Amino acid sequence: MSNLGFQTTLLYPCVLALLCVGAGLLVDRASGGFLPGALLPAVGAAALIGVSQLTTYSVSAASATPYVLALLAVAGFALGRRRLGMLARRWRRCGWQLAVPVLAYVVALAPVLFAGRPSFSSYGVLTDSAFHMLGADFLIRHGQDYAHLDLRNSYGQYLNSYYNASYPSGADTLFGGSAFLLGVPLIWAFQPFNAFMLATAAGPAWVLARRIGLDGALAAAAALTVTVPALVYGYELIASVKEITALGMILTLGALVALHTRWLRGPPQAAAPFALVSAAGISALGVGFGAWVLAAVLVLAVIAIRQVREDGQSSRQPLLLLAAGAIVALLAALGTWIDLPGSLRVAQSIASTSNPGNLQKPLRTVQVLGTWLVASYKHVPVGGHLTLSYALAILELLAAVMGGLYVVYIRQYALAGWIGLTLAVWLGLTAYGTTWAEGKALMLTSPVVVLLAWAGVAALCASAPRSVFRPAALVLALALVGGVVASDAMQYHGSNLAPTARYEELASLNSRFSGRGPTLFTDYDEYALYELRDLDVGGPGFMFPPRGVVLAHGLPVDLDRVSPAALLSFPLIVTRRNPAANRPPAAYRLLWQGTYYQVWSRRPGAPAAIARLGLSSTAPAATAQLGLSSTRTGWLPVPCSRVERLAQVARSHRAQLVAASPPQLVRVDVASAIHPVWANTRLGLLMSRPGSLRGSFALPHAGVWELWLQGEIMPAVQVSVDGHPLASISSQLTGVASDPDTMAPLRVRLAAGGHRLRITRGTSSPLAPGSGGSAILDSIFLTPVGAGSQATLHVTPAARWRSLCGRRLEWIEVV
To answer: What is the chain's mean pLDDT, rounded?
Structure first.
């Protein structure tokens, strides 16, 4: 593991744990010392979210957020040292309790941990994580100050459209503040942060498991499966940070309800933990989290009213408790309350949107039971996996029904009431929500249903410890654990991991060219918004493209379709290194080239081209103009009629013709290559199972050549030429299948004439992260090393326009 990998996956969560435990100790001391140790990390995280929301609301205090969080943790350890000492002396009796959060973190981060490099999982499935990285960075550096944003470019539009429009930022401010404290890149700390926030839910899950009568290994197994059921694990893999953060808060509310006897009769400050957790959930998920807060408050209100009636005491104490809690909740989520109308608009928009996000169809209700034996929660298992999924679901449903009855039987009325109202929240959101909102509600409810199934295990254990029910309880427990573990393992196996080296190169561009924007970015890769944050980046294919440079959302960027005048405002253009793609206009020169990217700089004073004709076979605008069909074979020969028209324009403006000659490409015909029964899809050749592709090509001359592969390759594939191994390629993805990844070229010295190429996908190891992920091969070609891999510019006087007729060119400009 690299030093950066160690910092992000191991050191960073330790720092987060210290921050959360320290803040939890501070809250515990301030509220009367009633919190069990298992709740300290979750309550501490809630307190830190509240503080980070306050500091980032003030522009002048935003940059101090990391140090304020550290100061709170230090104060908590100092003031709570006696409590900490008591917990330390009891650690031998808390082995299972301490192991569960660690195991939950390892399970949640398993794809990244076992990859041995910084990354994040399920790459490209949901790019909302790009916005959270961008927002976390901005909020810590600038706070809630959006006045200076340039709204003509993508960077400013994204921040303005999300965070200046009351988008929930509670998780982002804690993420940014904690990551800035350690100085780790947010792109690599994001998945560990999600895994850690999910692990904080293991504490309240442990408390709830103990309340239903489980202990030791059974309590640990219950807490772990409640924390990482299949649907929750799927959402964690795609880094749904709002929902993952809110989940821990929901379970903590349930634990505080179950522990009401410890604090509901206490002094006013005893309401602080409940209020902080409520506020943190609202800050992280939005005002929609109020539904889960209301469920918990209703249960507590019934208990408080009953206590007042039974004791014959004044209602003053519960009213003071309510007032104190309201004040804390108001302060801890101040930004949300100040702009409550905007927060309500966001919640309504999320709940009513017709956009299903990354869900092509609604999730199935059965997924709430925690088991779903398929590589992605969005898909439906097939064959025996579907049968087994439903068989386990029926068993878990019966256990949950039995568990619900058992919770009432053992007189855990508060816990039963909270579970019932939480299920009612889910049913309400399902009845009135849309596909996107229903999916989130299903995920947030799944741990509660799994908890009920474990209550069924507790019921069997309590029936007669030495009777036939004891083995039945163990069998049921094994079924619950096995279903969740198998489901999570299949998702682990099928996850896609973000490429590390490519994003590291992109980050180096941000440092090298900082402040020289605005910059046009031609990839559809919204993670560039964070990586190129100091270049005022704009992507024509982004959701919010630069003004005047609007292309199809989510598709590859074709500069032939961009008006030359629209490029005047971009001093820099960043493109992928891809010899098969068109060179930027003549006004730009190659300034820098790396393994994956090229940076083009506009020549000082260079005017916009008067006219431009794109001739790439992949350029829809050009093919439509020429009346030709698009192919994937190269560049189109230019008809004389089109050149003559450009020459007339050039003569009228006393200008010249500038043409770009494409580099020498030798293509390997993937369609005619020999391979197993792999499907040819619109995205390329789907290498769905182990096997080898065998193709051939002929080189016009000897020398050093570069072999280029385009596609989406997550599992390792072996590349060889003429029987000689060349490289092993893996984790080469763009995250957008419609925009194939151009992988780093492989250099090889070859003689002139024919050669044999072999590309092999081996047997997938179930232990290797992402070994069941994407494997799509789109195209293969070779270019000579050096100048031969770059387009060449030719300046032609208008009078000699006929010399361009019939030639294969990338484009022609009138300059």
So the answer is: 90
Give CA–CA dist 37/87, Å, rounded.
Answer: 7
Distance CA 278, CA 272 (A): 10
User: Tell me, what's the pLDDT at 468?
Assistant: 67
Domain final position from 423, 446, 469: 446
Q: For residue 316, what are its two tokens?
A: 């003053």
Contacts of 171 (CB under 8 A, 6+ apart): 49, 132, 197, 241, 242, 244, 245, 284
194-197 long-range CB contacts below 8 Å, 24 or more apart? 194/108, 194/236, 194/239, 194/240, 194/241, 194/244, 195/13, 195/105, 195/108, 195/109, 195/236, 196/13, 196/16, 196/17, 196/105, 197/45, 197/171, 197/241, 197/244, 197/245, 197/248
Look at residue 289 and tell me if it is in a domain.
Answer: yes
Helix or strand run (H / E) with residue 107 = helix 95-108
Query: Which residue has 């929930």 as its token pair?
Result: 168
**Number of DSSP helices (H) and strands (E) in the chain, helices first:** 30, 20
Return d(Cα 439, Cα 430) in angstroms, integer.
9
d(CA 588, CA 106): 48
Q: pLDDT tens digits for 598-650? A: 999 999 999 999 998 888 655 433 333 333 333 344 677 889 999 999 999 99
How far apart CA 390 and CA 383 sit, in angstroms, is 11
Helix (H, G, I), strand (E, B) or coil at 520: strand
Helix 384-409 to helix 413-432 angle (10° resolution) is 140
DSSP letter (8 states) at residue 808: B
What's at 414, amino acid-wise? A
Say how many CA atoms lie within 13 Å of 614 toward its Cβ: 22
Extract the tokens encoding 661.
């000659």
| Cβ atoms of residues 24 and 40 within 8 Å | yes
Q: What are phi and psi of 589, to 5 degrees?
A: -120, 150
Pairwise CA distance, residues 490 & 761, whole Å = 19
In 577-723, which ranges are E strands? 588-593, 597-602, 611-614, 656-661, 666-668, 679-681, 684-686, 691-699, 703-713, 717-721
Q: Which of 570, 477, 478, 464 is nearest to 516 (CA)?
A: 570
- Taking the C-alpha atoms of residue 48 and residue 31, their distance in angstroms, rounded to an integer, is 16
* DSSP H or E segment with residue 79: helix 65-79
Domain contains 16: yes
At residue 391, φ and ψ (nearest 5 deg) are -65, -45
Strands 537-538 and 519-521: parallel
> Which structure tokens are listed for 631?
């192919």
B/e letters for 79-115, b = 16+ CB within 10 Å, e = fewer, are bbeebbeebeeeeeeeebbbebbebbbebbbbbbbeb
Q: What is the CATH number of the domain that holds 785?
A: 2.60.120.260
Q: Is the dihedral of CA 282, 240, 739, 792 positive or negative?
A: positive
In a domain, 756, yes or no: yes
pLDDT tens per residue across span 304-334? 998 888 876 677 888 999 999 999 999 999 9
Give the integer Cα–Cα distance in Å for 66 and 542. Answer: 31
Please report how the helices 40-57 and 186-200 are oriented relative to each other, as an axis angle in degrees rounded to 10. 140
Confidence of residue 286 (pLDDT cuts 50, 70, 90): very high
Range of the domain at 45: 3-446
- Distant-in-sequence, close-in-space partners of 113: CB < 8 Å, separation ≥ 6: 9, 106
Domain's final residue, options 446, 462, 487: 446
Q: What is the pLDDT of residues 434-446, one digit of tens each?
A: 788 888 999 999 9
Q: Count the domains in the chain.
A: 2
pTM: 0.93
CA 256 to chain CA centroid, nearest Å: 30
Q: With beta carbons less than 8 A apart as the criterion, state whether 715 and 786 touch.
A: no
Please, how many CA atoms are within 13 Å of residue 462, restricted to the half-sphere of its CB?
A: 16
**Res. 51 pLDDT band, cuts 50 70 90:** very high
Indicate whether 425 belongs to any domain.
yes
